[in-house]
Amino acid sequence: MRLRIELFVEDMDVSIGFYRDLLGFQVERRDEGYASLRQGQVVLGLGPVAKLPEQAEGQGFTRQRLSGDKGAGVEIVLELDDLDTLQTFYERCQHQATISEPLKLRHWGLHDFRLTDPDGYYLRLTHGNAAGQSW
């Protein structure tokens, strides 16, 4: 099993720039209605909110549904290999992104920081787990 997360965004160019230029993702595919980006084993799909239907029956994504807080209830956790890399990302993000919580050692043994992307999606960057293993 693998994971690819897809986010619906207001401005494809701004979001691609954020993930590519700030977080180091590589654009693997891009067309008018979709972009696929990769950083290591993380695959991120971006699609424009404007291509969604205004309203629909059922629980699918619509422009109306995403008009509120897009990322409510979701934390996207990106694990980096080591603390030095995390520190480098933090220094870069301080000047180019909205930091929600600064880099610090958490009581569970991990260093991390939290930020939001241009659409308000909540990201946590960390360096693995306290034992040095991936979760």
TrEMBL record:
Database matches in InterPro entries: Glyas_Bleomycin-R_OHBP_Dase, Glyas_Fos-R_dOase_dom, VOC_core
Taxonomy of the source species: Bacteria, Bacillati, Actinomycetota, Actinomycetes, Micromonosporales
Domain VOC: 1-128
Designated name of the protein: VOC domain-containing protein
Database matches in PROSITE patterns: VOC
Domain of life according to the entry: Bacteria
